[in-house]
Amino acid sequence: MQQITNHLPTAELQALDAAHHMHPFSTQSELAAKGARVITGASGVTLRDSEGVEILDAMAGLWCVNVGYGREELAEAAARQMRELPYYNTFFMTTHVPAIALSARLAELAPGHLNHVFYAGSGSEANDTNLRMVRTYWAEMGKPSKQIVISRWNAYHGSSVGSGSLGGMKGMHAQGGMPIPGIEHIDQPNWWAEGGDMSPEEFGLERARQLEKKIDELGEDNVAAFIAEPVQGAGGVIVAPDTYWPEVMRICRERDILFIADEVICGFGRTGQWFGSQTLDLAPDIMTIAKGLSSGYQPIGGSIVSDKVAEVIGATEFNHGYTYSGHPVACAVALENLRILDEEGIVTRVREDTGPYLKEKFEGLMDHPMVGEAKIVGMMGSIALTPDKAARARFASDAGTVGYMVRERCFANNLIMRHVGDRMIISPPLVISKSEIDTLIERAWQSLDEGMAAVKDAGLWTAG
Ligand SMILES: *Cc1c(COP(=O)(O)O)cnc(C)c1O
């Protein structure tokens, strides 16, 4: 890779960054003390920092760079569209070709009855749209009391006030007056951490039936929808036991509530199908999309809406929208991204070739003495760190202490792997090759070895 040298020395960049740039989900003072890693370029699955070091990005940025970095076609699509029509809105009875073309393509790719797209600039915005859309749907259906949306603890649905409230992150709720009223949470299907003495199958049913109990407690006439990620991403790549989803689908059907599948991570090939709902056989009324929709090359999100819901919403004026809803440049890039995913057979490869290869290698990490569980669907995976596998024990230290130590070792070994508490997670670009998968696993193993040594040195190898 060619090194970019036309920037200030790293230390100066870090000082300016800490002085003027407020970072999301960071402790700014800690960042100022340590200095952020400055990323200057990328190609394929590899990032390059300001010191010229190459890093394997096993997170695809934030779960989004599905086709990998450095795709010339996407840059071209953006430049072409900027010259043609850089911006126009889709309010007030106007439209443009990129929004039309992308909507038609998404309707083709999405499961049968999902044929209508409402655009947003991000996943958070799209979930804000969904919150208003499901409530409006029931009001228009003559059932205005159906307003509550049920979600799950440890879900992630975005960071705006609406979507952050839909999410179940207690650390987020603790700041800024969330959750807003009208949102209820049930427990997540995380068997490793919360399953106790139950079998995964029993536990999956128990967690699904919490939805039924919650609806009955609130009254079916007061519940608009259930929202969930097919596989929880930011919560730590939590894969529900096999019994969970069929039961949830039964309950949504019988109780007459809408189901919103948040496909922001699971969509666009991540699970080996176009959508996680196809992999897990879910029947959503609305799917939230963002991230892999444009492989992160442009900020764009949206809601793919069923015929049933779109017809009702379409009969009235929906007083909602964003300046950048259906932004032409973002739509043009997304459309080109979908072409690449399709024509290069990337989704099929994840399902039939590189996905199964990654699964085998990733599950091999279970042989490491610190790894108690390895879960992977397509190209999103997680391992649980534990001092005692048989007991599925937590570490005695605060959740995340050990995970952070391992993450730091990964960083030092030029591998980006995230930690969520004491789970380590991956979500690499879908174009990752088998030899790059081998490198990923080698670096992960080495980081686990070094992390375990550091944990023992620090006297933290104790179950809590
Ligand atoms: C990232 C994410 C969001 C929020 O998307 P933004 O583009 O960051 O607003 C919503 N839902 C899920 C499942 C996500 O992973």
Automatic annotation (TrEMBL):
The keyword Transferase applies. Keywords: Aminotransferase, Pyridoxal phosphate, Transferase. It comes from Pseudooceanicola atlanticus. InterPro entries: Aminotrans_3, Aminotrans_3_PPA_site, PyrdxlP-dep_Trfase, PyrdxlP-dep_Trfase_major, PyrdxlP-dep_Trfase_small. GO terms for molecular function: pyridoxal phosphate binding; transaminase activity. Belongs to the class-III pyridoxal-phosphate-dependent aminotransferase family. This is Aminotransferase. SUPFAM superfamilies: PLP-dependent transferases.
